[in-house]
Design goal:
Ig_sub; six-stranded mixed beta sheet; mainly beta; Ig-like_fold; Ig-like_dom_sf; Ig-like domain-containing protein
Length: 127
């Protein structure tokens, strides 16, 4: 059995990217403590959603410096989605959504974001 392919999502530079994360609870009863988003090498999260104090509607959102003012994790959608708007070419890469449950094992779900430029310029030089 080979590696599971990473799902790709495409966004236009300057537009909105939508990166889904399946947060289904593996074993009932359980609840989510944290959802952390990482990009490329997981040094520190680029977005954190903290459910540890209160109800899911009271979860605290903490975008990292690179996403401040550009990102929000929508938990009221199915599947829940990290929205990045506007997107930059530098946003392209592999993102990992890590879900930490109170009792169940932590689950990490990777997705790949591909950014397409707004304009495609074709230059042809004929001598």
């Amino acid at each position: 059995m080979g590696p599971v392919p990473i799902r790709e999502f495409v966004a236009v530079a300057g537009g909105e990217a939508r990166l889904p994360c399946n947060i289904a609870i593996p074993k009932e009863p359980d609840i989510i403590s944290l959802i952390l988003w990482y990009r490329e090498a997981p040094k520190s999260p680029i977005y954190t959603l903290d459910f540890r104090k209160g109800l899911p509607d009271d979860a605290k959102h903490f975008p990292g410096k690179s996403l401040t003012g550009r990102a929000h994790f929508e938990t009221n959608e199915y599947p829940p989605t990290l929205k990045i708007n506007p997107t930059y070419v530098e946003d392209e890469g592999v993102y990992k959504c890590r879900i930490e449950y109170r009792r169940s094992r932590t689950v990490t779900r990777p997705v790949k974001l591909v950014i397409i430029g707004k304009y495609n310029l074709i230059v042809s030089c004929r001598a």
